[in-house]
Amino acid sequence: MDRSIIVPMIVMIWFLTTQHTAYAEIVSLNSKISEINTTFNYLKIYRLDPQTKKTEEIKIELDPSTRFHGVESLLDLNKGDEVSIEANYNIFTHEWKALVIGPYSRVSV
Question: What is the pLDDT of residue 16?
């Protein structure tokens, strides 16, 4: 086989197997906040796992691109508040990244 074909194929396979930034889905979550960490910019909520039907606590990370509706920032939210969150779920790392956060029923993407 010609080297001009093999090298790009190897690079492509390496890239696809080492990149873990591809998000599989955008998920809408409505839940109560169980924990807020303003130092490391994340919050935790409880949700019902659709596969196991068990309640689980999930950590949702925020970054500078996260938008807020109905509140100015994470500082305006409290433990126990009901929130609506649009988040990306990474199928490789099982991490959640918030796109939009706001008091329940005020979120729109």
Answer: 56
Does this model's pTM top 0.90? My answer is: no
Among 71, 65, 58, 66, residue whose Cα is nearest residue 106: 71
- Helices then strands, each counted (H, E), the chain: 1, 6
pLDDT, tens digit (0-9, with 9 covering 90-100), for 91-106: 888 899 999 999 886 4
Q: Mean of the pLDDT values across residues 3-26?
A: 64
User: What residues have CB less than 8 Å from 102, skipping those under 6 apart?
Assistant: 68, 69, 70, 71, 83, 84
**Token digits for 93?**
């790392």
CATH number for the region 22-103 comes to: 2.40.50.320
Check if the beta carbon of residue 74 is closer than 8 Å to that of residue 83. no
Report d(CA 36, CA 86) in Å as an integer: 17
